[in-house]
Amino acid sequence: MDLAYYQDYYKLERTHWWFVIRGQLIQRLTKQYAAKNQPLRILNVGVATGRTTELLSALGEVTSVEYESSCCTFLREELAMEVTEGSVTDLPYQDGSYDVVCAFDVIEHVEDHQTAVAELQRVCNPNGLVFVTVPAHMLLWSHHDIVNQHFRRYTRSELTGLFSEQIGKIVYSSYFNALLAGPVLMLRWMTRLVPKNWVRSKAGSDFTILADDSLLNKLFYKVLAAEVKLMPRVSLPTGTSAFCLWQKGAAALN
């Protein structure tokens, strides 16, 4: 990827309604479920242009991992952010190294997602937390998934099922972006009928369709912000994304 792509994506991660709300969700749930012994040792796998690392840094010391070498270069040269180039399927860390292990919209990019989840669990310490988000429902599959190099989208049960092989428990899972799932589905179907470059900018995904200062961007933010306030009291029955928080069993390394 070239510099212009990452500059475009950098802006999206900090201004687009979906990214902003996802960031609030990440902070809210990490504070709720992570161990209270601050500061936390946090591993953030698949950091993209770094916004999730910035958010998690308020909770502890964050180690950032990114697969794409060009993205690592962007982070180092443009943001002066320390990052390790590596893969979620082969993390270069010892067993039980981190209190919180995160992979936000990462494992859908990996063909062997079971190995990816096993690696996240391996480097998590006993009683630590693994926090994963993914795109939901193959019904929503579109050019957005293709350009972002996804292998699949998930139901919530498919996501939680990936965590069944090690000692631990799901402490909370849900869909999110439920209130806008219908409009997003309609948008995905409608954009199949027009040339892709009519509605998308450099990054190429559906995230680029709305300008960050548009009325719809602001409206969608308010709608989804109301939804996040319900969490973690409820688990939403559907949505465009899903997430899972898994706590490692204390006996897992014994």
UniProtKB/TrEMBL annotation:
One of its GO terms (biological process) is methylation. InterPro entries: Methyltransf_11, SAM-dependent_MTases_sf. The keyword S-adenosyl-L-methionine applies. GO terms for molecular function: S-adenosylmethionine-dependent methyltransferase activity. Pfam families: Methyltransf_11 (PF08241). SUPFAM superfamilies: S-adenosyl-L-methionine-dependent methyltransferases. Gene3D superfamilies: Vaccinia Virus protein VP39. Residues 43-131 form the Methyltransferase type domain. The keyword Cytoplasm does not apply. Keywords: Methyltransferase, S-adenosyl-L-methionine, Transferase. This is Class I SAM-dependent methyltransferase. It comes from Fibrella aquatilis. The lineage of its organism: Bacteria, Pseudomonadati, Bacteroidota, Cytophagia, Cytophagales.
